[in-house]
Structures are given as structure tokens and as C-alpha cells.
Amino acid sequence: MQFTRKHLLGLEELTTEEIQMILDTAVPFKEISERQIKKVPVLRGKTIVNLFFEPSTRTRTSFEFAEKRLSADTINISVAQSSVVKGETLVDTARNLEAMRIDMVVIRHSASGAPAFLSQRIDSQVINAGDGWHEHPTQGLLDMLTIRDRFGKLEGLKVVIVGDIMHSRVARSNIWGLKKMGAKVGVCGPPTLVPRQITALGVKIYPRIEDVLAEADVINVLRIQLERMQSNMIPSLQEYNNLYGITSRKLEKAGRDILILHPGPMNRGVEIDSDVADGKHQVILKQVTNGVAIRMAVLFLLAGEKPASAVEAASQHE
Fold first, then answer.
1. Helix axes 137-151, 58-69, angle to 10 degrees
2. I need a surface site. Which of 128, 161, 268, 291 has the fewest CB within 10 A?
3. How far apart are CA 239 and CA 233, in angstroms?
4. For residue 257, what are the contacts with CB-CB under 8 A and spacing of at least 6?
5. Buried b vs exposed e over 236-271: b needs ≥16 C-beta within 10 Å?
6. C-alpha–C-alpha distance, residues 292 and 142, integer Å
7. How far separated are the first and last CA of the chain, in Å rounded?
8. Average pLDDT over residues 230-245
9. Does the predicted model carry a pTM greater than 0.85?
10. 8 A C-beta contact, residue 26 and residue 145
11. What is the pLDDT of residues 42-101, one digit of tens each?
């Protein structure tokens, strides 16, 4: 079986087999990051543009590492210093880049649906690096890979996403991906930040963090996105920490070995306390490491390479 999609726009549209293929393809690419020379010539001659309309550190840097480790030529476009500030449209920007014979565009945009919109108007391949409140597919994939690394499976696990569900594209990608892989997914957070219609996606709403701690195998902690809130949707950050924050005291009281994930950036002392963020339950830095491998796998498969050849490709040296 080969990955036949031209773009990666979200996990909602992927099949279980396609998600499994990406996860499996990422595994041999992990080893490249441990070498002295962290490079293989798999995408030599390919030109990839990272077009970020929103601030990003982890995702943009992770994509850049992935592209360079596969030997692609990488260009980062700073929108604040581009013609967009002069009124140029998204499509015109992409078409001008495409005229320079690029192969792929990695795009992050504040508007939900921007990557899909772009994919219909240019010939280059488009990878969604996060669009509005919609999806963040590579984050969902790296979260699933991190969970699978620990448990050896995804099917049957209870995974609860805690925090600002309403404004989170990470939550939606995790829900779509985990459900397709057979996990049982729940959400927890203040009623103002958990849309009631989220149950239509087949997830369970937990009203109290104590209920989550009593059942979950995995907790994926989301930050409170104050920059996306149009009004005060929580009484205070301290009260949020008291009611929904993941603290060592709550984990000790639960008395269970629960895996803690966080996509970053973290608000320490709000959704997660420092002793948990740096403690034995968390795998936050492993998520970062897996992010590079997942993005290498996505680039590799979109370039038309066969999943079965990933091991051979990863064994090559620049």
C-alpha cells in the first residue's frame, strides 16, 4: 500500500490505514536524529516553503529540521516581512512562490480552512501546520506516536484531553486520529470552553478532573488560549488551576500511573504545575523528538516514496 494523497490537510479525512502508515513510517526516521550526521538524501532536489502566518517556535522549527534532515531545500517566509503586509492575498503569495518552482508549502494560518483553500488553487503540495480552530494534523500524529511508544498500542486506551477544547485545533486532530485508531476519547474543562456538540464526535465529557484521574490512561493537557478568547471565559487563572490544573497533589491522590502529554507552549502554574511538567509522568520532550520523525514521515510519503522503503531510506547517509 502506498500513500496516495497529494496533501495533508487534516486527520478527519484520513483512513485508519493511512494514519497507521504515517506512524509506522516515522519509526525508522527516529534513528536519524541520534546520529552524528543527521541527514539522508531522500528529498534532495525538493524545495519546501514554510509559510507561517501565526507565531510558532516548535512546529516551524520541527518542520525545518525534518526538511533539512531529508536534504530538501528549505525556505522560511516571515509574513511580517513579506508582501502580505502590503495587501497581497494568500493565493497571490503562494502563486508567486510557486513560480519559483517549489514542490511543497507548509502553512500555518489563523483562518480555519486556509490550507484546503490554498490546495485547490496551486499545484504544489500543501501541508497543514495548524489552521484556526480546525486541525493541527502533525501534532495529532506525534501525540499518537508518543502514546503508542509507551503502551505499544492505541486501541482501547482511554485518552482524555483537558483544557481549552473550544479554541484548540490540537484537540480536534487528536479526537479524529485517536477515534480512528480505536482509542476511547474524552474531554474535560470549564463548561465555557467545552462545546456541548463535541459529543457528536463520539467523545465523552468529563465534568470534573477527579473523574478523569480515576479513569484515564493518558491525559493530553492543553493550554488556555487567552489570545483567542473574545471575553473572560474563566473566572481567573488561579481558579482554573485549582479546578482543572494537573498538579502532583492530584496525581498522587489518584494513585495511578497516568501518562501526561502537552503540545506546548506550557503555562506553568495554570494548566500544569512545574513539578508535573518536569516529573516522571510526562513525555513532553519525547513529543518534540517524535514531532521531527512524524514530519519527516509525512514529507517522505507525500513525495511519493513507499512506506516499505522508509527503513532503507533512513539507513542512507548524506
1. 80
2. 268
3. 12
4. 281
5. eeeebbeebbbbeebbeebeeebbbbbbbebbeebb
6. 9
7. 27
8. 84
9. yes
10. yes
11. 999 999 999 999 888 899 999 999 999 999 999 998 776 556 655 678 888 888 888 999
Whole-angstrom distance, CA of residue 169 vs CA of residue 167: 7
Reading the block at residue 122, the C-alpha cell is: 496551486
For 183, the grid coordinates are 482509542
ω into 28 cis (within 30 of 0)? no
* pLDDT tens-digit map of 238-293: 999 999 999 999 999 999 999 999 999 999 999 999 999 999 999 999 999 999 99
Distance separating alpha carbons of residues 10 and 223, to the nearest angstrom = 21
Q: Distance between CA 237 and CA 14 in Å, rounded?
A: 36
Query: Is 193 strand, coil or helix?
Result: helix
One-letter amino acid identity for 55?
A: P
Q: How far apart are CA 86 and CA 30, in angstroms?
A: 41
Residue 82 dihedral angles phi and psi, to the nearest 5°: -105, 180
Radius of gyration of the chain from its Cα atoms, rounded to whole angstroms: 19
If we measure between CA atoms, which residue out of 181, 110, 175, 182 comes closest to residue 139? 175
Q: Which of 223, 229, 228, 43 is nearest to 139 (CA)?
A: 223
Query: What does each C-alpha distance from 77 to 53, 66, 228 come to in angstroms?
Result: 9, 17, 24
Q: For the chain, give me the number of helices (H) and strands (E)?
A: 12, 9
pLDDT for the residue 87: 65
